[in-house]
Design goal:
With about 160 residues, the chain is an alpha/beta fold. It has one domain (about 5-155): Rossmann fold (3-Layer(aba) Sandwich). Helices cover about 45% and strands about 15% of the residues. The chain is built from six helices and five strands, in the order E-H-E-H-H-E-H-E-H-H-E. It has a five-stranded parallel sheet with strand order 2-3-1-4-5, with helices on both faces. Helix 2 (about 35-45) crosses helix 3. The longest helix has 24 residues, at about 55-75. The chain starts with 6 loop residues before the first strand and ends in an 8-residue tail after the last strand. About 25% of the residues are buried.
């Protein structure tokens, strides 16, 4: 018998590592995709184009809280959710795991690892697309410096259900 609890897909990885591609694929099924970046773009425009990278964290904080409330509400309704956001530190990941459990769900932590040169290549391509903001080398370096890769947290590689 399968576990009837809703699944919360928690994603961790640097910008350009494939989180959004994975989350979008999950959302083609019965999983609701919640994206902090999409909400930020809708409210404040694109980073590096419509608002300065230096303003991003301050603008992002209330958006994260709003997405978190929606995340909890959906889980509480029994809906499976993918959180399309980096969850860069163990403390943040542990906090979300606790929230998932409190809301009656079960979590899956998916870790996206991509070589630095490949991240730069992907970001260079994405930075040139009008619908995306700009993530500079300096911004990527700052994010990487302030992120912790999960080790022993129940992390798994990015394999879509039914594809393995």
């Amino acid at each position: 018998m399968s576990d009837p609890r809703p699944v919360a897909w928690l994603l961790t990885g640097l910008p350009g590592s494939g989180k959004t591609t994975f989350a979008t694929a999950l959302a083609r099924g019965a999983v609701v995709r919640l994206s902090v970046d999409d909400r930020m773009t809708a409210l404040h425009g694109r980073i590096g184009k419509d608002h300065a990278a230096s303003d991003h964290l301050a603008l992002q904080a209330p958006v994260i809280e709003d997405v978190r409330r929606q995340f909890a509400a959906l889980l509480g309704e029994g809906r499976s959710v993918v959180l399309d956001h980096g969850l860069g530190t163990r403390a943040v990941r542990d906090d979300y795991k606790g929230l998932v459990t409190e809301c009656g769900g079960r979590w899956r932590l998916v870790h996206f690892q991509v070589a630095h040169d490949e991240l730069l290549r992907r970001l260079a391509k994405r930075n040139g697309e009008p619908e995306h903001g700009v993530i500079s080398r300096e911004t990527l370096a700052w994010i990487a410096e302030h992120s912790e890769a999960p080790v022993g947290e129940g992390e798994e590689p990015p394999v879509l259900p039914g594809s393995a």
